[in-house]
Amino acid sequence: MPKTPADLPDSVEDLRALVLEQQAAKQQLEARLAEQEQKLSAYSEELSQLHEYIRLLKSPHFGPKSERSAPGQMGLFNEAETLAEGEAPDAAPDVEVPAHTRRQRGGRRPLPAYLPREQILHDLPDDQKVCPNDPSHPLAEIGRDTLEQLAIVPARAKVIEHVRPKYACSTCKDGVHTAALPPQPIPKSLATPSLLAQVAASKYVDALPLARQETIFRRIGVDLSRGTLASWMIRAGELVDPLVARFLEEIRSADYVQADETPFQVLKENGKRATSASYLWALAGGPPEAPLHTYVYDPTRSGQVPKRLLRGFAGYLHTDGYAGYDAVGAEPGIVHVGCFAHARRKFDEALRGQGKRGAKGKSASKPSVARQGLRRINELYEIERRGRDGPPEERHALRQAKTRPKLDELRTWLDESLGRVPPKSLTGKALGYLDSQWPKLIRVLEDGRIPLDTNRVERSIRPFVIGRRNWLFADTPKGAQASANLYSLVETAKANGIEPWTYLHEVFEKLPAATTDADVEALLPWNLRPAAD
Q: How far is residue 286 from each of residues 118, 248, 325, measured CA to CA in Å?
């Protein structure tokens, strides 16, 4: 209740004390009000962030899943800047139209030439091979119409019997003599190289779980349990250890490698719960004419794993922003390169988190920060597409002339934008990621062989991720490493243009008899390429 004049103190000292008391009470109220406003602002910011994450989680279900932007879409509001890069409007430059092969529209693609062909001749009867005007004039063949159709022969199983006559001396009776069996991929097993290749290709190429393969084999009258098939895959994975080790040596000896990792659940891992995550580590390297992919299982995501895998490597290490690669990236002789695709993905996620408002932009004259960042990174990819088919030297020159100025503009824009959005928002995180990775990202200017991103190793790890949806987990660490080895073979075969079943069959047939390093060397995919063709 406010004080009336009758309630006021009589002395000046008491009045001064009352004023001070009221001032103190006012300051307390103002402090509490500021605290409440600060909490309200924090709650509002947190609510905005949660709405962003909700829209981001909804976007794969109710929006496009691809990160690809429609051509010209991101430049909708900067036509003047786009046109300024070209010729002046009044200039009349010469237009050179290079020779090209026009893609056939419609129709079907020709069947591969390497497929065996069986000809069925549909000819006229002899009595119709005469001229209808004069039967004395025989018709002459002037050409042929050919229709190609594709026929499929269902899988057929056959039994191979290894018969070894036994010999003994009827007089001396000192022993039995038989011919030695050729080396087998799994001794004393009914699995032939072709059968192992079929099971491995079905699982690691076609993502077909062993349980389904068990049913498929049963349909053709063969009873093979999934336990037997799993045991074969572990033995096959152990068999190819020397070849996969050779892959890793080749990757270490090159001067450029991409690395990535993905979770891999293993049920019976010592000291870990069945629900805990282990990891599959992937390396993609080797020269362009002989690409290699190697996968290694490890129970941890520690930075010591890539450090161990790349021991002795010197050159460019290309990874995403995971801090586990920083230790190996800081070693002498290694140059750590960042990935623009991951930086771009952060802005794409921020744009998805903004929902319809973010998709359309606040206004035509002021697109959101996320949209600006996405557009600027897309400009880098547009420049990259111009030099995609050229040699590394031309790509390096193009980057110095075109990419470097764009990177300078991107850095200036980044510095101006860092303080404009809350750091914990999706856009703030995208800006923070770009800022923290900047020293690694700009290293693409150093060498034309370095792509803007690590999409190569991500593409190689995608078949494992797709397969994991079907077979979910590995039972034991031995099974996990066997899967990693066999993935190494099939993905390397695909990268070298070899049909995976063909390569697996060749390896399972010849590796058991390999006794020297030269025998293993002969099974590297580029050494088998002529035979595969």
A: 40, 9, 19
